[in-house]
Input
Amino acid sequence: MMMMMMMRAGYSNSSSSSSNGVVVIIFVLIVLLKSPSTLGNGNLFEELELTWGGHRAKILDGGKLLTLSLDTISGSGFTSKRQYLFGRIDMQLKLVAGNSAGTVTAYYLSSEGGNHDEIDFEFLGNVSGEPYIVHTNVYTQGKGEREQQFYLWFDPTKNFHTYSIVWNPHNIIFMVDNTPIRVFNNEERRGVPFPNKQPMKLYSSLWNADQWATRGGLVKTDWSKAPFKAYYRNFNVANACVASPSSPPCTAKSFANASVPRGLDPRGRRRLRWVQKYYMIYNYCNDLKRFPQGLPRECRFTKF
Ligand SMILES: *[C@@H]1O[C@H](CO)[C@@H](O)[C@H](O)[C@H]1NC(C)=O
Output
């Protein structure tokens, strides 16, 4: 398409104004034809697949809204239809309101098969008025144990907020409303595996984990409040590389997208320090008791 336009444009320079009209029409066509490939911005029917929980998972409003629910019988979940390898993936979530103790809303990228890679957000519910915990983790080649946990600076059940995974060959950045809360750097050259070869799908589910989720399992789910509901909208994968047999492979060498930042700018670093100072409640890199043999390797190189 691009080629055609350039050829046309070249031709029109030395020709009549009627061929300018052709150029305009071709340009309009390009714009129109391009939109389906960036549909990630809107239509959830196109991008997502309901996988678990039957009628408890629903796509509504012509593909603009997705809801998951959890009752005494089952939770529910969805996955992305496509797989990604690097990119920025945004979605807006509104979490279970009221007494959500014991519920977990998981939202993560994961590869399939053994030695899998995974980039996790999990939202642990609480009794009314008490704070949710945002639990994060990174698995590389089947190994996790890299948890960091945070409170939020707002009530995540009142409105939609944007949760983003920025995944590029240099680092993984977890963001909440564009504020970075965690950065996992690529320290491959120092012997820490980094997820950069296995494509991942997005997964999300709402389920019950009252054995551990709220105050370590002390607070159980109040089933009289069921069904519990979480809401999703504005899934945006326009800036992700889609891994598919029909498109060029996504590789660390070839991946470049101006909308996917490589690391943080000064403002991002300030925001990250602010979150870590006031909202981080657990960091595996500070948990000497848990790792008596020594902290995981990457903790030694963490700059933030
Ligand atoms: C729930 O609230 C309690 C009390 O404020 C707090 O200790 C806990 O971290 C909160 N979050 C979860 C998921 O347990």
Residues 124, 126, 130-131, 133, 213-215 surround 2-acetamido-2-deoxy-beta-D-glucopyranose (CB under 6 Å). Confidence is low (pLDDT under 50) at residues 1-17, 28-40. The first strand starts at residue 48 and ends at 52.
